């Protein structure tokens, strides 16, 4: 039996483990990726562990999320980050050089390697055939320290692409089509592996658009083969020595098959406020818009922006619309400056921001109250733009540009223009000035600003959990809801007591005060709890506020791992009616947590209603044992102190 591409890559990253689907595997990273927003917890954890130098072969630090220096907080965080990078020997991209996932794709991602990083869109590197795994800050710390990160071996789905994209239908529409078909939960526990003749028609930045936004399906990762296009990309960045050809064996075993004919795809758009509410642009054409944001790690390669510039060329952005553009990297800006493209963008009336996440995480280009914003970002969860009750549509750069010109949602094919013809340059300009390469320095000065508070200490799980339900929610609670994005909140992510005050504000503004007053409670929620980002603050905050167990219909993979790390017991309803029957404030009891075993059913008593029901424990024994210590963070600390 042949191997899938995923199996071929993962077999070098595990030690003496077989890759049976569903089994627990420990992955050793070849590379790690960190960004400024999530890395503070990572570095605090590494300081706690006493790590003097990185143990992973290659480690990279980007500074792209928290760029607004309106006061000392972000600037202090950046200084701490630089100190830790210097100490540990981590390559640092200078602040504002670009969005981590795209910069990594340009300069460091390698076919066949495993990249583990503290962000959910790490699978962008699958565009060059590198297996990317997004993890929380503590797992990222483990990876940097050379320790394995444990996941359940995913199922592998073959996505066969046929045909060729038509003019003005770019790669973003491929992943929107995937989301339309499988939804935001359809990729949970799976890797999407792309194959078929259609793959050959897509270059690396187009492939990375697809693998990046594959995250929105809940997938563990997404992967393209490494082929002639990969070699062209690596050569263009002067690193052809990183090339290895890689593809699945013809007789590889896949768990599912999906077929997408690129030729028949049309411009697509996701409606507010979930990435899988995808319809054809034709169905919402003419909807007035107020704002357009072109940017994020999913789009705004040089190719994307050349296409946008071509559409805007010689025309003006509609007077009712503000258009903001965040290029992916300085490399992209340097490339645009070589052609009339940059001039076209500026002349048309676009605001051009520094290369960073910026508007994507609500840190720079929030829409006005009640305004409709059209974005090329990967996600549109409520409030993510920075404005409560926002109305964010997600689409491809071509649709975004055409709509900016007309002031209404517009199919770009209707403008009657010719698309730009893009050819990858033989060689991009040198990028080394964008990085600082630190060999490691135990004497590096580490300065921690007052905004960085120590990691909270948590105790062990009590043998009997008998607590009231502090909050009951519906499905699809995102990490943005638990720990909000936006310029007001990002700078206080390093300060758990402060950020916890706005937790769940979109669902129940009284949550923080009630949970804190209870000093111990249980949360009940629907399907796909914790979808969205890797931010572990979304696990730490509930724990900090006294939540000891979360009963859900299902959990997002990354968030489930974060809950285990921080000592929150996750349980899954067997029957919807058990979820329905629970009322807020009911007191639930779980006994004998010290004896929990992998695969067992756990009895939950509803003391208020005098009923009882069984729930599933979605964990391997090692995770259960860690939970008994109060989470993996505690378990690792005890191990290191022993
Ligand atoms: Fe940055 Fe947005 Fe990409 Fe996250 S999804 S890495 S916030 S650009």
UniProtKB/TrEMBL annotation:
One of its GO terms (cellular component) is cytosol. SUPFAM superfamilies: Aconitase iron-sulfur domain, LeuD/IlvD-like. PROSITE patterns: ACONITASE_1. This is Aconitate hydratase. GO terms for biological process: tricarboxylic acid cycle. It comes from Proteiniclasticum sediminis. Monomer. Belongs to the aconitase/IPM isomerase family.
């Amino acid at each position: 039996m042949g191997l899938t591409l995923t199996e071929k890559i993962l077999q070098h990253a595990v030690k003496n483990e077989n890759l049976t689907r569903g089994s627990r595997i420990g992955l050793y990273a070849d590379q790690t990726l960190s960004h400024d927003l999530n890395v503070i917890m990572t570095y605090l954890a590494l300081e706690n562990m006493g790590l003097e130098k990185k143990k992973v072969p290659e480690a990279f630090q980007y500074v792209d999320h928290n760029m607004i220096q309106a006061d000392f907080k972000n600037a202090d965080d950046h200084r701490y980050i630089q100190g830790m990078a210097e100490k540990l020997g981590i390559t640092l991209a200078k602040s504002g050089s670009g969005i981590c996932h795209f910069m990594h794709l340009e300069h460091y991602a390698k076919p066949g390697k495993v990249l583990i990083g503290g962000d959910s869109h790490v699978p962008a590197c699958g565009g060059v055939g590198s297996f990317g795994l997004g993890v929380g800050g503590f797992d990222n710390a483990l990876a940097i320290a050379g320790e394995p990160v444990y996941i359940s071996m995913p199922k592998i789905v073959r996505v066969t692409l046929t045909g060729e994209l038509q003019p003005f239908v770019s790669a973003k529409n491929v992943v929107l089509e995937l989301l339309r078909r499988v939804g935001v939960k359809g990729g949970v526990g799976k890797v999407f592996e792309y194959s078929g003749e259609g793959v050959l028609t897509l270059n690396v930045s187009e492939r990375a658009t697809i693998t990046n936004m594959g995250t929105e399906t809940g997938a563990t990762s997404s992967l393209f083969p490494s082929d002639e296009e990969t070699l062209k990309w690596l050569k263009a960045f002067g690193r052809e020595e990183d090339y290895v050809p890689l593809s699945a064996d013809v007789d590889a075993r896949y768990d599912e098959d999906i077929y997408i004919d690129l030729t028949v795809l049309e411009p697509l758009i996701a409606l507010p406020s979930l990435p899988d509410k995808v319809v054809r642009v034709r169905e919402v054409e003419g909807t007035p818009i107020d704002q357009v944001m072109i940017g994020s790690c999913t789009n705004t390669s040089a190719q994307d922006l050349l296409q946008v510039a071509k559409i805007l060329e010689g025309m003006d952005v509609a007077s009712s619309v503000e258009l903001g553009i965040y290029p992916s990297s300085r490399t992209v800006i340097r490339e645009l400056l070589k052609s009339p493209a940059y001039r076209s963008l500026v002349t048309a009336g676009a605001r051009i921001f520094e290369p960073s996440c910026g508007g994507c995480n609500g840190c720079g280009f929030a829409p006005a109250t009640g305004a409709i914003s059209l974005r090329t970002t990967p996600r549109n969860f409520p409030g993510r733009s920075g404005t409560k009750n926002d109305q964010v549509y997600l689409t491809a750069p071509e649709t975004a540009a055409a709509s900016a010109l007309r002031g209404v949602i517009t199919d770009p094919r209707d403008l009657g223009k010719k698309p730009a013809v893009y050819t990858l340059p033989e060689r991009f300009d040198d990028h080394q000035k964008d990085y600082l390469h630190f060999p490691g320095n135990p004497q590096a000065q580490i300065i921690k600003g007052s905004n960085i508070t120590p990691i909270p200490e948590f105790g062990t799980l009590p043998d009997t959990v008998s607590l009231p339900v502090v909050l009951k929610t519906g499905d699809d609670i995102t990490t943005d809801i638990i720990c909000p994005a936006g310029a007001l909140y990002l700078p206080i992510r390093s300060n758990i007591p402060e950020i916890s005050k706005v937790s769940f504000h979109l669902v129940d503004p009284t949550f923080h005060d009630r949970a804190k007053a209870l000093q111990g409670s249980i949360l009940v929620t629907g399907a796909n709890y914790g979808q969205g980002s890797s931010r572990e603050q979304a696990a730490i905050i509930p724990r900090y506020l006294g939540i000891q167990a979360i009963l859900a219909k299902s959990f997002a993979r990354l968030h489930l791992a974060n809950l285990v790390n921080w000592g929150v017991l996750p349980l899954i309803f067997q029957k919807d009616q058990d979820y329905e029957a629970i009322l807020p404030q009911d007191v639930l009891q779980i006994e004998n947590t010290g004896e929990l075993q992998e695969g067992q059913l756990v009895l939950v008593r509803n003391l208020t209603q005098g009923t009882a029901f069984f729930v599933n424990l979605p964990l391997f024994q090692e995770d259960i044992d860690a939970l008994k210590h109060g989470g993996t963070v505690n378990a690792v600390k005890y191990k290191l102190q022993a």
